[in-house]
Design a protein that fits this description.
3 strands; alpha+beta; single chain; globular; 3-stranded antiparallel β-sheet
């Protein structure tokens, strides 16, 4: 008798967030460089308590903009203004 393997939730839909280390690896840079860019307000991230995660949509939109413009885009343009006056 065959059993069907149930797909996990992770396999059914794309991830909405990536770790800083994963994104740094995607971009071929060190995680510390990306942490510094986030701290300087030059790269979008979400802080949950002490952990920083990067929205997958921000990366996708940056790629789409770079391809559409066929040129250089500035990641800082995807960083929302600070709402609560607290930096990274």
């Amino acid at each position: 008798m065959r059993t069907l393997r149930k797909q996990s939730v992770d396999e059914e839909r794309p991830r909405q967030f990536h770790s800083v280390t994963e994104v740094a690896r995607m971009f071929g840079m060190s995680p510390m460089t990306l942490y510094r860019a986030i701290a300087a307000g030059e790269f979008p991230a979400v802080r949950i308590r002490g952990r920083l995660i990067v929205p997958a949509r921000a990366i996708e939109e940056m790629v789409e903009a770079a391809l559409a413009d066929q040129g250089l885009i500035d990641a800082a343009e995807w960083v929302p203004e600070q709402r609560h006056g607290r930096g990274i």
